[in-house]
Structures are given as C-alpha cells and as structure tokens.
Input
Amino acid sequence: MQQKLRVLLADDDPVFLRLLPTQLANENFEISTATTGGSVLDVLEKREFDVVILDVDLPDISGIEVLKTIRTLESAPEVIMLTADTSLETGLTAMRAGAYDYITKPADSDQVKELIRKASDKTRIVKQNQRLKVAAATRYPGVQPIFESEISKRIFAEAERVAGMDATILITGESGTGKDVLANWIHSKSGRAELPIVSVNCGAIPENLVESEFFGFEKGAFTGAGKQKVGLIEAADASTLFLDEIGEMPLSLQVKLLMFLENGKFRKVGSVRDQTADVRVIAATNKDLKAGISDGSFRADLYYRLNIIMFELPPLHERPEDLEALSNGFLERFKSKYGRPELEFSNAAKRQIREYNWPGNVRELKNAVERTVALASGDKIERIHGIFESGVISGAVPTESKPELVSLAWLEKDHILKVLEEVNGNREAAASILGITSRTLYRKLKEYRA
Output
C-alpha cells in the first residue's frame, strides 16, 4: 500500500484552510494545518512532513523567516510558498531563501497537487540517496543458493511463498548453515527487491553505539556528533532489514526494536520527533532464544513478534545431497577466482568431504574448498586442506586426540582450534570465519584453558 504524502498547510485564512484540504480530499495526501509561523515550527519539531505549504503573510512571523528556519532543520521538508503578491519579487525572494516553488493566490488545486507531488519526489530522492549510502556500506554480496536435498527444497519453496508478505521472519540454525543466504534470497524474491537489503550483525556493534547505529542521531546529540547520521532502520525504509545474531542484541535495544515493530515509528538519538519507516525485518540466530527468555537475556514479547514465520536450517551433515552440490559449486567458483580451470576433486577428496562432520557447516566447507584450491599443486585435488588435522595453536590450547564418540562441545572446540591454526592464531580472522564475535571467541578459549 502506497504511503500517504504528509503535507502541512500553514495559512491564517480559515476559509482557505477548509477549502484546499477539501479540494485535495481524493488525493493520497495526509493534510495537517497551522495558522501561525510559531505553530508551524512547533509541529515540525514533533512530526515529520514531506511538504509544507506556507503563506508568506502569517500573523506572528514572516513566512520567509519561517522558511529560513525550516531550511536549517535536519531532514527538512520541501516548502511551497503561498503569496497574494502577483509581482515576481516576492516569489524570487522565497526561492532565494530555499523554497521549492511558489504559488500566487488564489491557488489552483491542480497546480497545488502537481507541485506537492514534485516537491515530495525531491524529498524522497534526497532521503533515498542518504539511505542507499548506508545500505551500500552493509551490502551483502549476493550468492545464489545451492541445494539438492529435499529438506532444502522444501525450505526454499516455503520461503518463496512467503517472500511477498511483509511478515517478520526468524531464521534459526547452527553457525554457518546459510541463514544469511536464505535471508537475502527471500529479499530478492520480495516486492522490496529494487532496494538493497540492509544487513547488520547485532553482536558486532559495541553496546554504547548500538542505539545510534540502529536509529541514527541528530547533529549535536552528543560529543562528536558533528552532523546528522542516518540509522540502519531509516536506511532500510521500503526495503528489508536483516538482523543477524539477533540473540546478541542488548536488552535496552530489544525494547526499542519491539516498539518499532509494533508501530513503525522510531526516534533518532537527540531528537524529540518521531519518524516512520516501512521496513520488513528478517532476523537470524544460532542461539536458543527460548533459553534466552528463561535466563532473562532475551525478551519474550520480542521473540513472539519476530517469530511470525520461522525457518530452521539443519546442519550440513544432515544434508548430504547439499554437501556434494555445495562442494562442487564452491570448486567451480574458486577455480575461476584462482585461474585453475582444470582442477577437480579426486575420489579420495570426495570421500574426505563425505565423511567429515563439518561442524562449521557451509562456511567451513566454503573456506576449506577455497584454501584447497589456492594451495593445489596439480590439476587433481587429493586432499582437502584444513580438516582431519590436529596440532598446537600458538597462544591457544593444544587439540586433543579424538575419542570414538564425541559431544557437540568437543566438536565445537576441535573446530575452533583448527580454524585458529589455519589463520596462524589470528583471533579476529578466526572469529570472522566462525561467524561469532571476538568477545565470544575469547570467552571460549578461556574456558578451554580452564
């Protein structure tokens, strides 16, 4: 549904204030009125408008002075001036002061309609450019999903069916199972696909910055806020916001996210004015959010608001058909990247891929295949580098010999240490590969040393 254009009409003539809204009643406009310059500025402090139609002659403050003040506001609407002066001078003065255009009274309703639409288009383009800059900084490189298993076919068929809906979606599954790929694929099949998806890892933003990152801030909101910042929610207006690792979101932000999901309104840090955004939210987590509700780290009301539609991605070892398709797909991708067109898996390498448990799931498989292609000496891959290996990691913990039956905790520890070994102990790189925060990795290594 197309959003109504929000128009503020300011004039001290009560007849005109009744007449023009009546003439525009059949248009997709939401019209508010004001009778003084002071009330115009008061309303603009509290509400957001697309266009202001402003009379030059107001009883308390000159319309030109009100216009000049409006132009200093952050996210200022476009202003169309009204004047009874038929000379060009008043109109030119208004244009020089920053008006979009001016209309000479008596105002023709068709002319007003056309100017409102043109002015709002300019406002929309300016705001959209601001949002696209933020979205570009978060943009996920599109990856076509690869799957052959029946369970994956069912998941993607259901995802395509709900892609056109605006219901919130929660995607769960172990780290590395492809939750981000599914989220981006849903966005690509939705009516919002013309605009880029805005993606954010909720665990990667420092807690003291998280509110300003999500909601943006006004100039002067705090020390160092030299200019207005567009937040992630505003950047995702008319698009999709993908909240990865939603289980890492601080409780203080969970409350505000819930409020936004309920009414579509948010407020920038340092602002007293509510803004609206039309955002479709997709969230993902590898955590048990119900356990988080029990221990108080996740809000139950937010969980139920997010969990309108849920997809659970199974671990890779439960999808052997996907394993083969993915390994071949990654091989083709990295053959092209590294200029190795003749490279292929040997039977031994294929068996190694089939028999390994892949605790890091698709992410681990992708990294293993890329590493193997980069290190291959001939045209036949005899072994996959980085799996079935053990050893001591510098500054970490020695790996243990593998028992016959292992727990999930043992597999997780073993995999983390192998990844650290592959990146020569670089914990930031390891955390990125593992899909966890550096803070989580440090905590786990401390537990392993205990």
Observations:
- DSSP finds 18 helices and 14 strands in the chain.
- The first helix runs from residue 14 to 23.
- The first strand starts at residue 5 and ends at 10.
- The CA atoms of residues 65 and 438 lie 53 Å apart.
